[in-house]
């Protein structure tokens, strides 16, 4: 089979050294990322403080606008932040938990950082309610709907769960939340860059994520989308001078919030990380997420079929419509198998209560999939 997506392989140097199946955790570095970093360093070295007025200050908006098409949102609606913890803290700090509407509904299987942030707001009156999972793999809609009511202020839902790669049916959750007057923040970290998104059509109020994974953007480049017609109604308490309407006036006292995406900024911009992230965004935009998704479904299906033929437990949904870009294999002594695979140059990862997570991306060859599965055959039998 001729795979047109493989023409991008040369853009990722690490692929020459190993079988890289861990893009769900840290996407491979694009060759262009080094040039982006050099551009930042050159400006710092040669322009010094003048670099702020010559482009640095606009880095959040420029980077967010590159990301916007991948989220299905308009330009000017994405704020770059350091990470999802900062993004979630910004959002929840804009809510008032002193009245009857003080419930935050979050999935039991959500990534822990979301839970940690929300738990911290109990001291401000928030009630954190967890949606249980019946199987440790999925978060069915019914359990969400019965916990969202008129006392709910915020619903936080991960579109793709990090352990199992299960896709959550978020549309009815959003509809229920809106029907009772609650906001929805959708965590799309494990979706953006591997799953076609149209957050505008979904009616998402807020979305959070980061660039470390499928976007191949590296660490330090989180992002926060706020629905444009909602943005002016939110006044985050977790804020900073970059969110001021006139930041260089250095006005003291209460903040006068900026308009647009800058309203949700915090302190001094993380210019270098955001510039580096642009390299991955450009490639993913060029490749096209629909093509990435089609290849992902084909290669993850191959992994799952092989696992089924060996009797290995697969902790990922079988249905293509409800599976993200990762396959989780729970084989005997999976932590040891994972370590042995990495030692052989098959780069995957392991998560407690899940197993080995394996994730091909658009730059993965079919031969690499076969070699990884052959290595697992040896290691699982040996144990």
Topology:
Layout: E1 19-20, H1 31-47, H2 59-71, E2 78-81, H3 84-92, E3 103-107, H4 112-120, E4 127-131, H5 141-145, E5 152-158, H6 170-179, E6 183-187, H7 199-202, E7 206-210, E8 222-226, H8 228-231, H9 271-287, H10 289-310, E9 313-314, E10 327-330, H11 334-343, E11 346-347, E12 349-351, E13 355-358, H12 366-382
Parallel strand pairs: 1-11, 3-4, 3-5, 5-6, 6-7
Antiparallel strand pairs: 2-8, 7-8, 9-10, 10-13, 12-13
Helix pairs in contact: 1-9, 2-9, 3-4, 10-12, 11-12
Short description:
This protein is an alpha/beta fold and 383 residues long.
Summary tags:
383 residues; alpha/beta; Aspartate Aminotransferase, domain 1; Aspartate Aminotransferase, domain 2; 2 domains; 7-stranded mixed β-sheet; 4-stranded antiparallel β-sheet; 12 helices; 36% helix
């Amino acid at each position: 089979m001729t795979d047109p997506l493989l023409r991008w392989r040369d853009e990722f140097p690490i692929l020459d050294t190993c079988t890289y199946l861990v893009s769900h955790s840290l996407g491979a570095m694009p060759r262009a990322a080094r040039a982006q970093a050099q551009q930042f360093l050159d400006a710092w070295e040669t322009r010094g403080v003048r670099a702020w007025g010559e482009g640095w200050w606009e880095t959040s908006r420029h980077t967010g606008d590159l990301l916007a098409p991948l989220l299905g949102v308009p330009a000017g609606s994405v704020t770059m932040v350091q990470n999802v913890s900062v993004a979630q803290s910004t959002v929840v700090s804009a809510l008032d938990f002193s009245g009857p509407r003080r419930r935050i509904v979050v999935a039991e299987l959500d990534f822990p950082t979301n839970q940690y942030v929300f738990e911290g707001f109990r001291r401000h009156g928030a009630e954190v309610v967890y949606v249980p999972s019946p199987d440790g793999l999925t978060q069915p809609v019914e359990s969400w709907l019965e916990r969202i009511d008129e006392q709910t202020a915020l619903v936080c839902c991960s579109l793709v769960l990090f352990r199992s790669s299960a896709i959550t049916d978020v549309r009815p959750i959003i509809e229920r939340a809106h029907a009772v007057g609650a906001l929805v923040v959708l965590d799309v970290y494990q979706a953006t860059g591997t799953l076609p998104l149209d957050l505008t059509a979904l009616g998402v109020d807020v979305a959070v994520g980061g660039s470390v994974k499928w976007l191949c953007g590296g660490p330090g480049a989180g992002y926060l989308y706020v629905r444009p017609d909602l943005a002016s109604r939110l006044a985050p308490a977790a804020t900073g001078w970059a969110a001021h309407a006139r930041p260089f006036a250095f006005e003291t006292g209460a903040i006068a919030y900026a308009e647009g995406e800058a309203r949700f900024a915090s302190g001094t911009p993380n210019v270098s990380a955001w510039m580096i992230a642009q390299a991955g965004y450009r490639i993913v935009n060029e490749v096209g997420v629909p093509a990435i998704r089609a290849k992902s479904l084909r290669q993850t299906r191959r992994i799952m079929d092989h696992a089924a033929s060996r009797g290995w437990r697969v902790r990922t949904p079988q249905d293509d419509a409800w599976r993200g870009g990762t396959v989780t294999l729970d084989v005997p002594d999976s932590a040891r198998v994972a370590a042995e695979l990495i030692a052989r140059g098959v780069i995957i990862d392991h998560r407690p209560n899940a197993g080995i997570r394996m994730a091909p991306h658009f730059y993965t060859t079919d031969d690499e999939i076969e070699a990884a599965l052959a290595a697992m055959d040896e290691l699982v039998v040996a144990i």
